[in-house]
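Field log, afternoon session.

UNIT: design team B
ACTIVITY: writing a sequence onto a fixed backbone
BACKBONE:
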């Protein structure tokens, strides 16, 4: 009978080890599910933050674009005024040339700024329209963002 007791004890030990293994597997699955849940919420938080930043940036860039457009109008008005002054003979040729050079520089500066703003507006709008894609692109570029 001692052999039967030994076999029963061994079977009970094996059963306990199986239960412990199953419990460990369940714990590992729960841990993985929790990690995925946190990652999903983290991704949602990142998307929400990206969307908010893109929205704020877009509004700021639109304001800057309006300022550039107003400055363009001022330059064009300056050119018209300069033309009228030249036609009236109110400016000598050297003064007219200097004024025209100044207006041309302003125009070039505004054109460059307007082009850069258009690029930035395009990027901000793309992020606003699909923050998840931008989040994935950032995570691909910077793997450390993945948790």
């Amino acid at each position: 009978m001692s052999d039967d007791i030994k076999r029963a004890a061994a079977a009970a030990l094996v059963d306990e080890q199986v239960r412990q293994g199953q419990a460990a597997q369940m714990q590992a699955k729960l841990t993985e599910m929790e990690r995925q849940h946190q990652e999903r919420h983290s991704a949602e938080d990142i998307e929400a933050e990206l969307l908010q930043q893109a929205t704020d940036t877009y509004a700021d860039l639109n304001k800057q674009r309006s300022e550039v457009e107003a400055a363009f109008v001022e330059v064009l008005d300056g050119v018209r005024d300069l033309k009228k002054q030249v036609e009236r003979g109110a400016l000598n040729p050297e003064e007219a040339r200097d004024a025209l050079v100044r207006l041309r520089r302003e125009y070039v500066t505004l054109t460059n700024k307007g082009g850069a703003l258009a690029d930035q507006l395009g990027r901000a709008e793309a992020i606003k329209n699909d923050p998840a894609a931008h989040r994935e692109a950032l995570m691909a570029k910077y793997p450390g963002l993945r948790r």
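LOG NOTE: The first helix runs from residue 2 to 88.
NEXT ACTIVITY: expression trials, pending approval
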